[in-house]
């Protein structure tokens, strides 16, 4: 953030007031462009009926809270990191553990398929090989260096570059091979807890969320903060792009998830319920973007109908906070990690019984018509 | 009858609720709000004193009453959900079963009591082991059978005695002093306070096997904004809570902020979702089957094979990004362009994408190579860019960075999108691929959970 000294006639108070006035003006301008709520527009969209999602795989093996997980591109392998200081690669399909890497720092907060980052302020990249006898930990390479914990990391479409978010309030882009800092992103006024890369082939943007209750969109090339959203009432724990890249969702300690449209430049939906009073720590979209899976500190995963704004279903099962949810790369399954030291895999058993529902509706209609004609005849 | 202390603690809770950024353990921000509603005189849960045998059980309500209240007031339709939420609120210590160390909610006649706000988790408690030692020691001084230590408590006491061997005399004295003060109290009040104190410890020193709900996300604890608000000692404090009656603790005033946002419509979001509905395995069963359900990995094998299925080919028509994203799509697109002798655009675009992913060390060389191949005068795969982009690129190449070709790439992308891509989709090569797997009969095709209203092409 550019820091200039106070100009003549300015005090901290006057600047604060000016900033508040500007914020209000911005809100007013945004409001002028507004008409309808997302769920009102989505009225013509058919309701999801008979959505049946069940958890059918439980991966046990960590000795402590699982803090993070991610899917491998092959759609069946997962990597997870835990407070027990280990990173485990699983074949979730067969429940086999394929690699186990012990790490010197027990607080491994984030892992993506390959890079690992944690509370030792560093981000390490560990190459994985099929040779189980290799001492993988020895091949670990330090890449990112922040002045506070690294909360999230993501490869930028190749394993040569790494994007990190940190408790030091910044995000940074690194060259993996040399460890060089390519670009840093300043703008958050508190810890940055999460980041997500835009899913575009041409885009160069990413979104970050932090303890300053703000979600910021950044240009990777220039380091500029191009959009900012401030509607949450507490820490934003997770941000995730909608699959088209035109919107994103956020999960927060204020017990809500919110949906922001980038082109409209504002929040367009809030996912909340009176019965949900615990913070949401993580979220991810289904492949079409119709469903938003969110993990909460009340040990549940709520599945939201993104367009209608209602909760489609709820998944119980974890016995402690859900720290991470991720949909598999081809959208066939949902992986979840928890402080209960397990990972779970869930999927949909919906077989399109909407058809049966319609058939029954038709039967009733036919019946009622017959009755009517019968009575009229008399 | 609440004394100043009560008011202060209630006010503290209220302030803590509304100053959301101050709370240490942020996992259950809204609990105090809900509790306040539960305790409301008019619309809350009725609290009563129950007479049993020779004793009175003061200030209780049943588990069923909690469940009923929640289902009525918190928009909960399912009893399972109400029990889950209620159990969590109990596990965090906002109310507790009066006769059990294990903090769960049962939908029956089991009695529960509210916790005094002083002991609420929202007060950022981090009680010391010395306090726990004082508490357990005090318990052993009380001669009531019902206050006997449970096995795990006895074990904890033994451990603490060993750990604090040197200062045990001091701890013992504290315990004695506490016990003396307790004896002076009114019997009913004592019952309530004892149970609340026990419930406090059940939260901070849970029964082995139970979740410790006081565990904080390390990322949050490492940025404690108000360390002075953390209460570390239960019994060493000057303003002892035992000087006021918890039975009449007023419900803290909580500010409920309900700002409904004014929203905006975005048709493209709807369009996208509808278009991809059939590709979303959570809504439409994949063809031939979801490997997770059927244990059959055919779907993944098909994806990995060079032969793209009809559904996959259909997707390429949604927009140029779909083709560029799919390696098989890229291959087919390239093949088509080669047949038209116009593949240099795509090859340039791909080369620049690749460049941006290289290690910084390799960038200068790669930039030169791309320049020579595509843009230099007499280049073998010359591409056509507007003069402005060309000039800019010429400049960039002199001091080569990852974004040297950004302008040129953007220009080429727009060109491909408006020209080559649309021809590709209309080409016979593409149409053939699309028709190829049409042998899948209509009756076999799995139905979607909801029929799309209109399949609008979502062109990007």
Automatic annotation (TrEMBL), chain A:
Organism this protein belongs to: Oreochromis niloticus
Family to which this protein belongs: Belongs to the WD repeat G protein beta family.
Positions annotated as WD repeat: 59-91, 143-184, 185-228, 229-270, 315-345
Gene from which the chain derives: GNB5
SUPFAM superfamilies linked: WD40 repeat-like
PROSITE patterns in the cross-refs: WD_REPEATS_1 (PS00678), WD_REPEATS_2 (PS50082), WD_REPEATS_REGION (PS50294)
Coiled-coil region(s): 9-39
SMART domains tied to this protein: WD40
Secretion signal span: none
Pfam families in UniProt: WD40_Gbeta (PF25391)
UniProt name for this protein: Guanine nucleotide binding protein (G protein), beta 5b
The keyword Repeat is assigned to this record: yes
UniProtKB/TrEMBL annotation, chain B:
Domain DEP stretches: 41-116
GO cellular component: cytosol; neuron projection; plasma membrane
Keywords: Signal, Signal transduction inhibitor
Signal peptide start and end residues: 1-24
Gene3D superfamilies, alphabetized: 1.10.1240.60, Regulator of G-protein Signalling 4, domain 2 (1.10.167.10), Winged helix-like DNA-binding domain superfamily/Winged helix DNA-binding domain (1.10.10.10)
Ranges where the RGS domain occurs: 319-434
Swiss-Prot/TrEMBL GO biological process terms: G protein-coupled receptor signaling pathway; intracellular signal transduction; negative regulation of signal transduction; regulation of G protein-coupled receptor signaling pathway
Gene Ontology MF terms in the entry: GTPase activator activity
Alphabetical list of PANTHER family matching this protein: LP21163P, REGULATOR OF G-PROTEIN SIGNALING 7
Name the record gives this protein: Regulator of G protein signaling 7
Organism: Oreochromis niloticus
Gene name for this UniProt entry: RGS7
